[in-house]
Amino acid sequence: GVEPLWAEKYRPAHVTHLVGNGDHIKRLMHWLTNWDSVSRAYDAESKNGKSQHAQFKAALLSGPPGVGKTSAARVALTDCGFDVVELNASDTRSEKALAACATDMLGNTSIADFALSGHPGHVGKQCKMALVMDEVDGMSAGDRGGVQLLIKLIHKSKMPVICICNDRQSPKIKSLANHCLDLRFRRPGPKEVAIALRRVAKAEGYDADAPTLEKVAEACNADIRQMLNLLQMWRPRGANLSQADVTSNMVAAFKDVDVGPFDVAHKFFNHANASVESRLRHYFVDSSMTPLLVQESYLSVHLNMPPGMPPARQQMHTLQRMAAAAESIAEADTVGVRITRDQAWSLAPLHGALACVRPGFHMAGNIGKVNFPAWLGRNSSANKRMRLLHECAAHMHAHISGSGEEVRQAYIPALRGPLLAPLRTHGVAGIDETLGLMDAYSLSKDDFDTIMEMQLLPAGGAPDITHVPTNAKSALTRKYNKTHLAVQKLKGAAAAARNEKRFDEDGAGDDDAVGDDDEHDDDDDDDDKLVKQKAKPVAAEPRKGKGKAKAK
């Protein structure tokens, strides 16, 4: 007969057959085992009006393709005694289809239980069923309302619901994740995969050592299904598999995979035998993000120490390696400035060698999780503060002559104390004094917050906005909005009307013909109009038959 595919022949039948993500699988098994108590606790919290739940009626398995999410869901449910109903992207998953499926499942009995119902001594019971929603991130516009109804189904469900997706960052998945036990699967390491492959190869009479199978795992990006298919295809060529055979056979069998900077950053440190060319290919996956990941991670690497090095010498060796990596990263920054300033993109390979390859060589070892670059967050905060500083300086320039740097270095530290002192000392009674100082420098409430935020406290800790009573801060905001925002809106409306009138009189292309003096005079006139004048008494018309009317 036809030999079955190894991927089907050795499909995991129990949880112990799964490779990698052991902690997540244990959590999933514990959740399924205690499903009845979890469901009761969830319903009790819902009856009490709680929107945030400590327990979940659904689990979300997310991660890249080929890591065993679907296999883990099927095997875990089977081991816990559940019958599985699975829907994937090829099925109709609209709101109506999901509603019909859920209605049918809640009252169904399995065929096995139905067949045994006529046997003597059989006690009928409702079947334990579970719903597996595969590829929920693939719900398109044709599945309109599917995600929203799935969330409603989870709230009312009397059975476990396991959702599976690849793109954890999808907006639809983010809303769904709030109602699920969040389990994020990762790719198993080459060594873990090689152990499982070696058991299969041994069962099939195929001799392959661990390093050879690890090389296959790296080439296939830990896709176990593809690796089993390749081994089955190579098996008729001989009973032995060497690394040379893998190199020659993989020329036509390499898998095209979509990798990101987080997938390749660790390879600069723990792939000692990788060539410079292959490491540069990792750099060009994302030439702007990968160097930041290397810079963020190189200090957390556990170095591979030379054999026989005494412990007293290891600390000095570590510091020397760190210094060499830091120097290389600094040189890479210089090259990066040259690339962006002069558009010298021919220096990109040099930048990759200095920013990624060389630090990875100096800090070769084992690295755990690659952290998100902290520089991106700090750079975003710096840009925000720079923008707020420019706005504050622009408002103050009507009364001062300093530059933006001088405002930051001299004016902001000098103004912070006088702005805070009345509020700290007198509370609500000091609001007028603070607003008067703000008006003297044309500061808005946003500028006030900017001045409070931009502070470098000395060692002793200078007073800041946290020392002001809460009622005083709230009263300051209310009074500022009441006395200032209305005037600002009127000024904005007057300026818009003036510009529209000027456009109508002078034409679209004659804006430059308007003199500065005229514009200044217009501003003065508009400002005067904002001041309410006391209404003059108006004599009312005499009414017939009533005599003279008195002035109001």
TrEMBL record:
<protein>
    <recommendedName>
        <fullName>AAA+ ATPase domain-containing protein</fullName>
    </recommendedName>
</protein>
<keyword id="KW-0067">ATP-binding</keyword>
<feature type="region of interest" description="Disordered">
    <location>
        <begin position="498"/>
        <end position="552"/>
    </location>
</feature>
<dbReference type="Pfam" id="PF00004">
    <property type="entry name" value="AAA"/>
</dbReference>
<feature type="domain" description="AAA+ ATPase">
    <location>
        <begin position="55"/>
        <end position="191"/>
    </location>
</feature>
<keyword id="KW-0547">Nucleotide-binding</keyword>
<dbReference type="GO" id="GO:0003677">
    <property type="term" value="F:DNA binding"/>
</dbReference>
<dbReference type="GO" id="GO:0016887">
    <property type="term" value="F:ATP hydrolysis activity"/>
</dbReference>
<dbReference type="InterPro" id="IPR027417">
    <property type="entry name" value="P-loop_NTPase"/>
</dbReference>
<dbReference type="Pfam" id="PF25361">
    <property type="entry name" value="AAA_lid_RFC1"/>
</dbReference>
<dbReference type="Pfam" id="PF08519">
    <property type="entry name" value="RFC1"/>
</dbReference>
<keyword id="KW-0235">DNA replication</keyword>
<dbReference type="InterPro" id="IPR047854">
    <property type="entry name" value="RFC_lid"/>
</dbReference>
<dbReference type="InterPro" id="IPR008921">
    <property type="entry name" value="DNA_pol3_clamp-load_cplx_C"/>
</dbReference>
<dbReference type="InterPro" id="IPR012178">
    <property type="entry name" value="RFC1"/>
</dbReference>
<dbReference type="GO" id="GO:0006281">
    <property type="term" value="P:DNA repair"/>
</dbReference>
<dbReference type="GO" id="GO:0005524">
    <property type="term" value="F:ATP binding"/>
</dbReference>
<dbReference type="GO" id="GO:0005663">
    <property type="term" value="C:DNA replication factor C complex"/>
</dbReference>
<comment type="similarity">
    <text>Belongs to the activator 1 large subunit family.</text>
</comment>
<feature type="compositionally biased region" description="Acidic residues">
    <location>
        <begin position="506"/>
        <end position="528"/>
    </location>
</feature>
<dbReference type="InterPro" id="IPR003959">
    <property type="entry name" value="ATPase_AAA_core"/>
</dbReference>
<keyword id="KW-0539">Nucleus</keyword>
<dbReference type="GO" id="GO:0003689">
    <property type="term" value="F:DNA clamp loader activity"/>
</dbReference>
<dbReference type="InterPro" id="IPR003593">
    <property type="entry name" value="AAA+_ATPase"/>
</dbReference>
<dbReference type="GO" id="GO:0006260">
    <property type="term" value="P:DNA replication"/>
</dbReference>
<dbReference type="GO" id="GO:0005634">
    <property type="term" value="C:nucleus"/>
</dbReference>
<dbReference type="InterPro" id="IPR013725">
    <property type="entry name" value="DNA_replication_fac_RFC1_C"/>
</dbReference>
